[in-house]
Amino acid sequence: MIDTKQKILDAAEQLIAGQGYAATSLRQIITSAGVNLASIHYHFGSKEELLDELVRRKAVPVNEKRLEILDRYAAEAGGGPVPIEKVLDAFLTPMAEAATRQPQFVRVMGRVIVEGLLPAVIQKNFQPVLNRFIGALREGLPHLSASEFQWRIQFMIGAMAHTMCGTIEQDGDFGTRIARLIVFLSAGFRAPATEGK
Amino acid sequence: MIDTKQKILDAAEQLIAGQGYAATSLRQIITSAGVNLASIHYHFGSKEELLDELVRRKAVPVNEKRLEILDRYAAEAGGGPVPIEKVLDAFLTPMAEAATRQPQFVRVMGRVIVEGLLPAVIQKNFQPVLNRFIGALREGLPHLSASEFQWRIQFMIGAMAHTMCGTIEQDGDFGTRIARLIVFLSAGFRAPATEGK
DNA sequence: GTCTATACTGAGATAGAC
DNA sequence: GTCTATCTCAGTATAGAC
User: Fold this and answer.
1) Are B136 and B82 in contact (CB under 8 A)?
2) What pTM value is reported for the model?
3) Which of A85, A89, A184, A197 to mutate to test the interface with B (most CBs of B within 10 A)?
4) pLDDT tens for each residue of A5-54
5) What is the Cα–Cα distance from A68 to A73, expressed in whole angstroms?
6) Taking the mean position of all CA atoms in its chain, how far away is CA A4?
7) Are the C-beta atoms of residues B139 and B189 closer than 8 Å to each other?
8) Residues in chain B within 8 Å Cβ distance of A160
9) Is there a contact between A141 and A85 (Cβ–Cβ < 8 Å)?
10) B192 and A176: CB-CB below 8 Å?
């Protein structure tokens, strides 16, 4: 059946979003999907490659949308730096839109980052996008040393990843959460450089 | 031997700091420590309880120090709110001091939070301390709604956890890293409330 | 090409001898 | 306290049915 693959992906997404990747066994997935154990290795090769495909399928369109919006903002800025609120908005809004249709996917993404999985996939699919956004942020923040800027990027990544996991009860929708995150992060980025460092 | 337990703890700390908890097997630990597999279950009961003890041993003094410093700052403030820079400083400095003596420990702590381990231990050992600090932060931030304040706490936790893991190469010492984190987070907390939310 | 049955290795956990 | 042997379950691999 052509949809054996689909059934596996759907079941895996559901389970991983809920319990995390490490806690989800292939035997749980095949039971939930109603397929045979070996079919996972036939269609994907390994547990990790299953996750890889799960992430890539949906991350690719999100990343395309991100770049599209950033390009638009860059054009509006006409050569000058894009305000960091807008850079962050371009990065987070496509994720929020994906979240309304596919709430599980965002949680899977959070899990991937938070469990430190798939460094190869992150590298390959996200690093180019991330680099574009980091470059855009940098233009708006010339007052920071290279080192301090890099650390603020790390703070941002940590806050974003933890927020996406959303283990705490969701009050309000994902859009509200992101609006608040943008306010918080923008202020953090705009803060004056740390004294004497 | 009385130090079988110690040898296990030391080997486990080393390995978990480097590879993470999930990636570290009990068989790796016993090989590195030069002890028998069953001795782990004799001394600790399970892999999880081993981690539990690993964390608790060092987290307890750090948490005591945190409260001590916060109490001092609160006394200095004489009933008024403690500036959030100082609250964050009271929370992070004892960790930084522990890091200079025991650099592995901080990474283990980061792993625990980032891998989502030991919710029970976090709850028991850290929640009381965290609640004190959250209360102290709240006093200095009356302009935020309860919901927005809670989210900013989440952003802070994410940024802290990711920073502690320090998977990126350490430029500068831990103290510098923390000074920068405080500047970033303080500005984020002080940002005006998100419009219309 | 697709799926089933079954076996292999390594994980954490446990019982019982010493 | 310590060690050996063993249990269950994980991810993985493959041979062979359709």
Assistant:
1) yes
2) 0.88
3) A184
4) 999 999 999 999 888 898 899 999 999 999 999 999 999 999 999 999 99
5) 9
6) 27
7) no
8) 158
9) no
10) no
Between CA B119 and CA B124 the distance in angstroms is 9
Nearest to B184 among A116, A152, A162 (CB): A152
As a rounded value in angstroms, the CA-to-C1' distance for A27 and D17 is: 22
Please provide the size of chain A in residues. 197
| Amino acid letter, residue A170 | Q
Return the residue matching tokens 């919901």.
Answer: B147
C2 C1' closest Cα residue? A1
Query: Cβ–Cβ of A159/B158 closer than 8 Å?
Result: yes
d(CA A128, CA A113): 16
What are the backbone dihedrals phi and psi of residue A80, each rounded to the nearest 5 degrees, phi first?
Answer: -75, 175
> What tokens does B28 get?
């790796």
Interface check A119 vs B, CB under 8 A: no
DSSP of A77-107: HTTSPPPHHHHHHHHHHHHHHHHHH-HHHHH
